[in-house]
Amino acid sequence: MASPNTIHFTDANFDSEAMQAGQPVLVDFWAEWCGPCRAIAPMIDELATNYAGKAKIGKVDIDSNRDLALRFGIQSIPTILLLKDGQVVNKWVGMQPKPVIQKALDAAAG
What we know:
By secondary structure, this protein is α/β, with parallel strands linked by helices. It has a single domain (7-109), classed as Glutaredoxin, CATH 3.40.30.10. The chain has four helices and five strands. The chain has a five-stranded mixed beta sheet with strand order 1-3-2-4-5. The longest helix is centred in the middle third of the chain and has 16 residues, at 35-50. The protein is globular. The N and C termini lie far apart (29 Å).
């Protein structure tokens, strides 16, 4: 079940929700047809709950938001970006262990 803290980023809301956020932002680029994307979805939702108030965590459906996928050069999914002050500070392609992402989030949230 999706976390109420998980943000659904879109071409329309990305700049205001992610690029201008006053806290770190974790963005999961995914698609419905991507098996590994569905496999990490519970981890993304769990992180969204655990980091509520410290970081914004959300997803971009690349099929519905092609401009964002192009803008960030997403070539394979899942791809997870960690943004701080509107800049990409970490990028992971493929499935990642939760502790790797938590460590980066903790460092960015400082």
